[in-house]
Specification:
Beta-lactamase; 614 residues; Penicillin-binding protein 2a (Domain 2); 2 domains; five-stranded antiparallel sheet
Length: 614
């Protein structure tokens, strides 16, 4: 008789295993059904839900009048295709048909045919098609000439006003542009990105198997918020005139760049600001591919050694500290040995003019005289260096002006407290060498000299939506009203007492003043990397004012890296000098702008009369 082959123990073990397994499954099922039910349901919904952000309509930008449109958003179309739904021959046929409709040149035709020839489910062919072009493509699709193409709405930023340079848009450097992702780049577009862009509308909907929203399942999560409009301080007419003047000077002087800013010295409102060459913000892609440096605004972003326009800061330090007056006689020896004879500074012509009043030292832009005043600010070189440096920083150099445009540079001002200056450093600083600034910083500093001592906040936006923008000043009391009057008179003395300036700077019937600057340009790549001064190339500056009873506009001009047509010791001449360009801009600005009266009590009556001159 055969023995039994079953095993009671084996059956019991199997039963235990099955019981444990079933129990584990029940526990897990219970965990899913009870503990994790909400989370799993949310994951399921997420897998079948579309969440979409619809960008808000971007705000428009107007000039100071609120009527001239500088930037707006227009409806355009993106042309796409699904080439994988076409045969190879049909792709070429559709591509060439589209090229004919779009009137493309041979090179762009080939690009389009190449794009649509890809065996892909989705290809972007072109951006920015207007309504008329879109209608022609729709008609061709209805006629069967093209297939498997689609037109998708694509809001596009447009800058409708032409600029002063050929093929540019107005105020391109000030405004910047908006890329295809809807992000502002440079200028106002970037600085006010959140204000202009608003908040996107957020919707959710269930999707079908083809990832398309199911009707009647859409709900709004966030209604969003439309972008706000901006009203600029920029005057469109003056801006165009300024750009045309800068272009003319740029061409005449064969300069690398010519820049200028026109500002209200009492409020900081910028009426015009430009650089030549400029660019067309409507075609920023081409500039990005060939010359992206063109986007940088030299008036706020590019640093340079300003030269003798900084002698007005030396004048402030000396007059405010009482170490010199406008009539103090100073020995202009032509050359001044420093640091125990190891270094020296010299006037441009190296002529010994003997004793000159300090007013004439500034007017005739004598380096040796300015250096002697700087060295005499205090008993020691260290103390005098700190005095001059502190004057610079009080007037805003070495930090941002706070202008409401993206990309501003703070400048370079070395602090003698951390690295002591030698006599040569102090002397060079007295006439604007060894310090790096922007034209905007110069405009703000000069405004404080002429408005009674207030460091204004420069700005290009006057209103956001229906709200006015009035930035508070950065500092007050930098100089007294009486010293401000002296400085106004000193600047007038510069342009009225020197024939070279007088004949090409004064504007009949108006009060004019300012200071020139001509600076060498250091190139660190010269002399096998040891650096050196560029040969016969200079930066030319002029910062000044124009008004009737008092200064009403401050204008800063810079001509970058121009080669003079006349270059003799003490005489450097351009076809269009910086002070001539100032006069052209100033004449246009004072006649075109409807300027309000300056704030009451800013300067005493008669402050426009040159004071303290010999």
């Amino acid at each position: 008789m055969l023995g039994r082959t079953d095993s009671r123990g084996r059956l019991i073990a199997l039963l235990v295993v099955l019981t444990v397994t079933a129990g584990s499954l029940l526990v897990r099922l219970g965990q899913w059904q009870i503990v994790e039910q909400a989370g799993l349901a949310e994951q399921a919904r997420a897998q079948t839900t579309i969440r979409e952000e619809i960008p808000a309509r971007r705000g428009s930008i107007y000039d100071r009048s609120g009527t001239i449109l500088l930037a707006t958003t227009v409806d355009r179309y993106l042309l796409s295709a699904t080439p994988d739904q076409l045969t190879a021959s049909d792709r070429t046929k559709v591509g060439r048909e589209l090229a004919t409709i779009l009137k493309l040149d041979p090179a762009k035709t080939q690009d389009l045919v190449t794009a649509i020839s890809q065996d892909r489910p989705y290809v972007v062919l072109l951006h920015g098609l207007d309504e008329a072009t879109a209608d022609r493509i729709r008609a061709a699709a209805l006629d069967g000439h093209v297939s498997q193409v689609a037109l998708e709405p694509e809001p596009t930023r447009e800058y409708p006003q032409p600029g002063g340079d050929p093929q540019t848009s107005l105020a391109a450097h000030v405004l910047g542009f908006v890329n295809r992702a809807g992000e502002g780049q440079y200028g106002v577009e970037q600085f006010y990105q959140s204000v202009l862009a608003g908040q996107p509308k957020v919707i959710v909907a269930q999707r079908d198997a083809n990832d398309r929203p199911i009707p009647d399942t859409t709900s709004i999560v966030d209604p969003g918020e439309a972008g706000q409009d901006l009203r600029m301080t920029i005057d469109a007419g003056l801006q165009l005139t300024l750009e045309q003047e800068l272009l003319a000077a740029d061409l005449a002087d064969s300069a690398k760049n010519v820049s200028a800013v026109v500002m209200d010295p009492y409020t900081g409102e910028i009426y015009a600001q430009a650089s030549s060459p400029s660019y067309d913000a409507n075609d920023y892609q081409s500039i990005a591919a060939t010359d992206p440096g063109r986007f940088v605004d030299p008036t706020i972003s590019q640093l340079y050694e300003p030269g003798s326009v900084f002698k007005m800061l030396t004048a402030v330090a000396g007059l405010q500290g009482g170490t010199v007056s406008l009539t103090t006689k100073i020995d202009d020896s032509g050359v001044l040995r420093l640091d125990k004879g190891k270094t020296f500074v010299a006037d441009a012509d190296r002529h010994d003019r003997g004793l000159m009043t300090f007013a004439d030292i500034v007017a005739w832009s004598r380096n040796v005289g300015a250096a002697r005043v700087a060295l005499g600010l205090a008993p020691t070189t260290a103390a005098a260096s700190i005095d001059l440096h502190d004057t610079w920083t009080r007037f805003g150099f070495g930090r941002l002006t706070g202008v409401d445009e993206a990309g501003e540079a703070a400048g370079l001002v070395h602090d003698p407290r951390s690295t002591p200056w030698q006599q040569i450093d102090l002397a060079n600083g007295s006439f604007g060498q060894g310090v790096a600034v922007t034209p905007m910083q110069l405009a703000v500093a000069y405004a404080a000299m002429m408005n009674g001592g207030t460091l204004v906040q420069p700005h290009v936006v006057a209103g956001i939506g229906d709200r006015d923008v009035t930035p508070a000043p950065q500092a007050q009391g930098l100089v007294s009203a009486s010293l401000s009057q002296q400085l106004i008179g000193l600047m007038n003395h510069v342009v009225s007492s020197v024939p070279f300036y007088r004949d090409r700077t004064l504007v009949p019937g108006y009060l004019v003043g300012g200071k020139t600057g001509t600076a060498q340009i250091w190139d660190p790549t010269l002399n096998d990397g040891r650096g050196g001064w560029k040969v016969n190339k200079f930066n030319y500056s002029f910062v000044g004012y124009i008004g009737q009873r008092v200064p009403r506009l401050v204008i800063a001009v810079r001509i970058e890296e121009a080669r003079p047509t006349i270059a003799r010791r003490g005489e450097i001449e351009l076809p269009v000098m910086s002070f001539e360009l100032f006069r052209r801009i100033a004449t246009s600005a004072i006649t075109m702008l409807d300027l309000p009266e300056p704030p009451a009590g800013v300067l005493p009556e008669g402050s426009g009369v040159p004071a303290g001159q010999p």
